[in-house]
Amino acid sequence: MEIEGGHYTLTKQLQKGSLLIYHCPDGYYPYPAKTRLCQHDSSWVRAPKTFNPQRCRVVECPDPTVMEYGEVSPPQEKYFVNNETTYECYSGYTMRGSARRVCLPNAKWSGSTPICGRESGHNCADPGIPAGASRAGNIFGIDDTVKYSCNSNLFLVGSRERVCLENGQWSNKEPACYYKHTYDTSLEVSQEFGSSIRDRLTTSESLNDTQSGKMIRISKNGTLNIYIAVDISESIEEEDISSFTVNPNYEIAFFSSEFYEVVNILDFFNEQQVERSTIINIVANFKIGQKNTGTDLDLVFKNFLDKMAFIKQRVGTEKFKEHHHVIILFTDGAYNMGGSPVPTVARIKNMVYMNQTGEQETQSREAYLDIYFCDWK
What we know:
Elements: E1 7-10, E2 19-23, E3 28-31, E4 35-38, E5 44-45, E6 55-58, E7 60-61, E8 70-73, E9 79-80, E10 84-89, E11 94-96, E12 100-102, E13 115-117, E14 133-136, E15 145-150, E16 155-157, E17 161-163, E18 176-178, H1 186-200, E19 210-212, E20 217-219, E21 223-231, E22 249-255, E23 259-263, H2 276-285, H3 297-315, H4 317-320, E24 323-331, H5 342-352, H6 359-366, E25 369-375
Parallel strand pairs: 21-22, 21-24, 24-25
Antiparallel strand pairs: 1-2, 2-4, 3-6, 4-5, 7-9, 8-10, 10-12, 11-13, 14-15, 15-17, 16-18, 19-20, 22-23
Helix pairs in contact: 3-5
């Protein structure tokens, strides 16, 4: 059960149903497992293996040498935390982005993607290639597309495909290739998500009647529904909820093996005046009167799915199309009750995407659903 270079905690000691959680110092991550669950037959999932002992590995960042028309120094087979890289463009090309980057403890590179471009007569500028990625497409005229994929054991976050628009901008956001041990820092979540809410989802009108942000887009006459769930099981040591300067419809709940509803989103649809200050007071004064040992993540999504279904029935299908849903879960991501939440999440997507099956139709609906997992660190 031991982990080399780190330590572990148990939610229920060595009792059945206990969750073992591995912890590593900053700049390291647990490998090969982050957690293990004690089953009712007294075996662990995932089971420890003597030939692959649990240890804290040094954080690795994606390969930055994918940059075109320039050089990356120093050239290395792998890049680890605190490694520094510099970028220089070939003659005739101009640098955009960061000329110096550092591999951070969360497995991301500091700064922004370095791009070596030049005047080519294209409508859109070269969109570059993020670290660890490959790109198909080198023509950047109006309606031209570029497609991204990730190398080796990385997974893609963001838009797999981007289109050159008439205004000279690329659609969607730049994708990124992450390892499984990559995570967003609390500062990143606060800045990017919070500023997106405050600065983009305002009552001001944009030229095309649509307000767009880095992650969230909503039409001027649309509705924003925010669902917040905070894990209060024994595996969690602290909690925090951020407030925003806009007035969306809120569903706020705490959860462990049970679902404790604090603010019911349906109250906003019953012509009740729900003030933001009232919401904050309710959350601050809410008390949990029992010990919370289990974690049922699927129960959270099922409750949110039920609320979405009720809202859709209440406002009608056409108006529901303009509802943007943001689900925020503060949790360590581990669960030991209720089974996998994946099927329920698929049902939520199906509802918001309006049963669209084509790739283009699905992408047009993806802007109406965002799911954030804010991992307790």
